[in-house]
Amino acid sequence: MNCDTFAAGERLVSPAYVRQSCEARRSHEHLVLQLLEKGKCPEDGWDESTLELFLHELAVMDSNNFLGNCGVGEREGRVASALVARRHYRLIHGIGRSGDISAVQPKAAGSSLLNKITNSLLLDIIKLAGVPTVASCFVVPVATGMSLTLCFLTLRHQRPKAKYIIWPRIDQKSCFKSMITAGFEPVVIENVLEGDELRTDLKAVEAKVQELGPDSILCIHSTTSCFAPRVPDRLEELAVICANYGIPHVVNNAYGVQSSKCMHLIQQEMFSYLSNQLKKLSEANYERLLQTPHNPISLALTLKTLDVHHDKGVTQLGAMLFTRHVSGTTVVPLGLVQTVSGHTFRGFMSHTNAYPCAYLNAAATIGMKTQDVDLFIKRLDKCLKTIRKEQNKESVPGVDNYDKTENVDIEETALKLDNVLLDTCQDSSS
Amino acid sequence: MNCDTFAAGERLVSPAYVRQSCEARRSHEHLVLQLLEKGKCPEDGWDESTLELFLHELAVMDSNNFLGNCGVGEREGRVASALVARRHYRLIHGIGRSGDISAVQPKAAGSSLLNKITNSLLLDIIKLAGVPTVASCFVVPVATGMSLTLCFLTLRHQRPKAKYIIWPRIDQKSCFKSMITAGFEPVVIENVLEGDELRTDLKAVEAKVQELGPDSILCIHSTTSCFAPRVPDRLEELAVICANYGIPHVVNNAYGVQSSKCMHLIQQEMFSYLSNQLKKLSEANYERLLQTPHNPISLALTLKTLDVHHDKGVTQLGAMLFTRHVSGTTVVPLGLVQTVSGHTFRGFMSHTNAYPCAYLNAAATIGMKTQDVDLFIKRLDKCLKTIRKEQNKESVPGVDNYDKTENVDIEETALKLDNVLLDTCQDSSS
Amino acid sequence: MNCDTFAAGERLVSPAYVRQSCEARRSHEHLVLQLLEKGKCPEDGWDESTLELFLHELAVMDSNNFLGNCGVGEREGRVASALVARRHYRLIHGIGRSGDISAVQPKAAGSSLLNKITNSLLLDIIKLAGVPTVASCFVVPVATGMSLTLCFLTLRHQRPKAKYIIWPRIDQKSCFKSMITAGFEPVVIENVLEGDELRTDLKAVEAKVQELGPDSILCIHSTTSCFAPRVPDRLEELAVICANYGIPHVVNNAYGVQSSKCMHLIQQEMFSYLSNQLKKLSEANYERLLQTPHNPISLALTLKTLDVHHDKGVTQLGAMLFTRHVSGTTVVPLGLVQTVSGHTFRGFMSHTNAYPCAYLNAAATIGMKTQDVDLFIKRLDKCLKTIRKEQNKESVPGVDNYDKTENVDIEETALKLDNVLLDTCQDSSS
Amino acid sequence: MNCDTFAAGERLVSPAYVRQSCEARRSHEHLVLQLLEKGKCPEDGWDESTLELFLHELAVMDSNNFLGNCGVGEREGRVASALVARRHYRLIHGIGRSGDISAVQPKAAGSSLLNKITNSLLLDIIKLAGVPTVASCFVVPVATGMSLTLCFLTLRHQRPKAKYIIWPRIDQKSCFKSMITAGFEPVVIENVLEGDELRTDLKAVEAKVQELGPDSILCIHSTTSCFAPRVPDRLEELAVICANYGIPHVVNNAYGVQSSKCMHLIQQEMFSYLSNQLKKLSEANYERLLQTPHNPISLALTLKTLDVHHDKGVTQLGAMLFTRHVSGTTVVPLGLVQTVSGHTFRGFMSHTNAYPCAYLNAAATIGMKTQDVDLFIKRLDKCLKTIRKEQNKESVPGVDNYDKTENVDIEETALKLDNVLLDTCQDSSS
To answer: What pTM does this model have?
Structure first.
């Protein structure tokens, strides 16, 4: 609509009020105009009334919402279910064109405009997050592994003789599979233990480059974001090696945008809080918080006591946390062996063949609150005490007379489920 | 938004496509403009995309959706729950003003406009439905009884000496209570039986007017819509009496708009179908469809066989239909006595002291389909046969080898519920 | 659904996960169960996932959502528009029964249950708000005026000889009309000025009772909630008079629940803040905050300077606030005369024939924030200075070099609209 | 919820009604149970009340909707915008696990279950559509080109020596790019003209296989669905060649499922109707409907008259149809040259170097109605006459006195836009 349309309403509710409304309406339009002109994230988030108005306006720009449209193609934004139409705000038509996903679709100007704005906002966000030199980007529904595969396939055209990819080990299946899928042979470089931390073995990387010869290497494939005690790869030193030998450097920066300087500042306080609370808990339970200063997001807590007394303790802890609705932690036992696409990894999940002890991971993320940390610490503490008590067949202070403010239902239910879940404990996260 | 706003999008998706979209958008605006100018029902119903666009546009006209609004009153359209805001399309502010429900509310121009349009559309619908002389109307959430009370209160100012309301009996509690609530004494005129039909006793009405004296009578209160075998009151003859004695005539036309000539034509076919099917069923079950040609919507089927053989048969039928998911029928037994606001009605529900037999009502309404009738007939037939079988302790053809296409679950479930519900059977409708 | 149903999903996603989910689901069910059993407001508000699950569950309890339902009544919850069905969560069937709005509707068990719970929650809220003796209540869409009319109509049955209602004046049309609509003659008792406050004239009330005779009086009709400088009626003293003469006491407590002790505590801080800020502003503008300690919600600021210098100043202020998106204030000029249902009120809006000066009202309400007050004070201050400047044709400090952080658009737009709105200024609130 | 929960409501609305509702509720549950057990499309589509109930139930199975959940991972289904949560029915958590997209995600049992059911339903649909031997499938957001690339990458592991892909030409960019992206060299086999149809050149295919040697060939890449006058590739003969030489056969069956036998039967009537109407129109306009019996969906109409008289006629027709809201047609001019990933295609869009004439495509698709065809024919006829008139500068019967029932606005608007759009005409579809 526009103010002319609503002028027809003046007869019914007085010109003054309609005019006042039209002026007020312009503040919504002004936000839209700024978005379209600048293509940047607004300082203040839009409220839902502006958002929905904008989405409805975009929808009527698409041909499937033209009144009296006549569609004789194979792709006309027809939808059988009103429920589906509605939850997409009637933005139903596909965008892009055959062979060019970023092309404007003439039959869907609204959806295409939304797509362009989305890409523009993402570019703005990446810059804000600390990568000011990025020139262009676009959003597609492709996960980490496929993105990497596409990068490798693109490099193939430049380096037709290359067969290998040099890869400092990180125990994430999709990263490994991405190289196999693209048709290359991953060359795994084991990490080295420095204090508690697992870090990139730069000498091993350079030695391997010399052994295989630069031309046979497609790229070095490094990783920025990982669970403690592994820390981000030594990007700058790897970049020097790449430059010296003329090899491309592909950096898997998944989750990395959110761990950049910018984000880090926002979260610093929370990260300290989680770190301090975990430290206290570890000491009270005869364990230790691993010292991993190079990992800005993730923390790890040793599980030595469980490990020593009882074989199944670590697994049991994972199951117990899961049934007590603690999600997102990972327990890493010792000595798992896993074969992925034909390659056998010893000590799988720990990024190294033999880490000194079993441990548990937790991470501080955007949106986490102090209460979340407190709840986590409380439940974890109780689980640790319960397991130790069972192992020792003797009383552990603080278990029986536990704080009753915790929801009793969760605990009771959890006890019932514990046995069922023993088998699935390693799976309590991903 | 308007086309100027979206011109800012031309840079992103080409001027030609944006312009095409803006033109297409005008067809939505054109519908809105016509609605605002004419205030009449559109020939073709709007599709949801136009409807929702319009509602969102109206919402941003209300002050609670002004960006940067500053509200310091006691009524500012504040809502705690996003769920509530959303389901009202953010049209949250009240309308009307103290003491004048139809006044425009300056802080809610959008809601006020919607209110005015609603009233305008209703006026159009009433005219289309066959009342072309109606001059004005408005929608308020007030049911039949309260509407009548308000009419009587309004008449009081014109007729300060009046104490009585003359009322041809109809067994609907709210009609009776409306007179009591307004502070008047209802004078009940019993209906007369003509064939199967219960009709207005005009002589009794006139006699009562003469007996009480016109000045002591507030109005004659008649009814157009009722269940067979009662038929609509003789409006024209009553109007003559009113005119002769100078007494107002208040016609309770609830449901009447939908039974006017206009509606009648639309439904005639369905009504015949229901009538014919009920006739067949009644004959097959040794019952009779009551002849009530003056009632254009509702039909009644005698329940003599149930009545004769077994006292509880009628009640049981009501319960059985209810548990078999047949809703909207009413079974009317003989001899109910009910006291409403101090007045005792004999033969309550049947509109007369002693109707010759028990019966069952069904009605043909807008939106009913042939399949609905078929399903109803099938289930009713089965219920009747089942009851007779139980009563006679002998086989009734067609019960045991019943058509198995009917959902078996409903039948089984219903059998379980039957006993529970015997007490509530009269309530199976309203 | 229930856990048995989802057991069928164990084949697809593992028994452990389905069981975990079912346990988690019980916490939602537990909330529902508590609500149904206790019928009280939960300590913590439900989140939307629980709310919507509950509403969907209720909806499938109504017959219009039974799969295979067969409806042959005139009221079957049929809806033409999917949009309407959706926004009502498919709770479309009516509730209550003819003549008894609070009866359970057998065809709509879900909607009836929701209705019962709603009434139960409201009862809990009223008790929490400070009326612990209330025994029962129900929610109906009836505004203040109609509620009062219904109260008067109910009293009529007890006091058939009564003609008059004693009414300490409050300038709200609906209150006055409610007495007229019910067929009674309002006897207006003018308020007395005590300091800045307008208070109930108890002597005049009692004198009038004696003059007319108790039997001819239906009730005394008092009011708890009003705009300063009028304050709530002297309820306790009026109650004594009523008891002495055997006259009912009808208290219009609209908005009163929210101004009870309980609410008052919550808001006290905010009320002080608004009061202090208005005080500062009034002094800076050569005006005065009226001293109205008996009015716990509303405040009034004199407008003497506008009044003296220029006749239209007060009206202009109302218009200016409206166009600057300040809603909820009321400007009260001197000497308005208004006739309502045949009775002429001098000094209308001010609750008295001749209040000493014009003034502006503002109120502190639930949901108001400190920022709202600041924004209000800023805009009001600017309006006052602008008008004085125009009137004096001389510079007023602080207008020209005003704080530029205020949205410039609003000001510019407002200037354009000011003239258009001069006529509608008294209407800037209600 | 379950019936036990609602038993708590019996106190409020009577046990009989709650029990009736619970029984009715089971019919919804029964549908869910059947879906979970059989994993097949239900005979009758579910109504929205069942659908939404099911989705809400699934949502509360995911850990992000557990009340009291404690998430300390990097992926916890946190969402900043309520609008986003809502439109996803709060199914916000990711599914799959690192490196295995089809794995069950323990933290999202509901979403995982929905995913499994989706895949199961798709499998059922593919079987119904005429491919009974398909064993497994899953839904991922990957378009045609990427799907083909992944197929080629998978085959690479089996045929490490292969460099080439044999590809009967089809002018669709994404098909061609898919081979380049996977790192292979496409060998284009030109089609042969048989009557009006363009068909696979089987001899050229076999000759090329022999020339390059089977081991150097990754696969033959054929296509089932295309625009007339190209027809689907000769799949059976190609399959014989593949078998003889031991070469894999990759069939691009995009849109093919809907053109299978099953679908064909459904649509046959509509296809005949479109075909007949286009035939009449072509004769009335001195053009010809191309005879393409092997293409079961798409039709082509010669544009010789436009081509002969005026160079720009064909392009103009595309633009005119676009501005008149006819979407989905493609106009194919002669002699376009286009370079895709380094390969130059002559006669691009026509699947051959030099088709005898320009033409226009239209397709019959699921959901198309007779009225759609009529509207298309009407608008196309008018466009053709208008262009011829302009070209001939002489009157063409039927243009000036055209049927006025057509929406005049569309025509007027379209005239304004025509010039703007001349440049974009080839883009009027995709």
So the answer is: 0.87
